[in-house]
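pasting for ref
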Amino acid sequence: MLDALAGSDDAYRAISKIRWAVGPGPARGAAMNPAVGEFAHYLASAITLLFGLWCLLRPRRVASAVSFELRGARGRAEFRIGFGGFMIGIAAYALWAGEPLAFKALGAMWLGGAVARVLVWFADQPVLERSYLGVFVFELTQAALLLC
């Protein structure tokens, strides 16, 4: 069936519509469409900002999701500062500045977390639960969006 369509005018029109909608695509070795990359940067920065807000406002919920123990008010405060405040600060700056270097720094932070997660797995051998692997995938996705 595909062979029959390959030379037909219908197939040519369908392919032309797809190419018009998504563009011709990058040539081999060419960079991503700048608008797509810029959207990815802002999206990942906004996600980082929301994650920071979640850590700031709901430290117990986030901590329990990743098997992190909060000890008393000081532990909660340090979690809010370290995971909430720092993430909010760097993400807000990246969104405000809109500079490629700010997005790259944010991406390097996420990539550093993913690399550390692999190294820590060899050193400490934590149980590979869904949440451990899920956070790893999240870190890699954020890094990819910001470093593209």
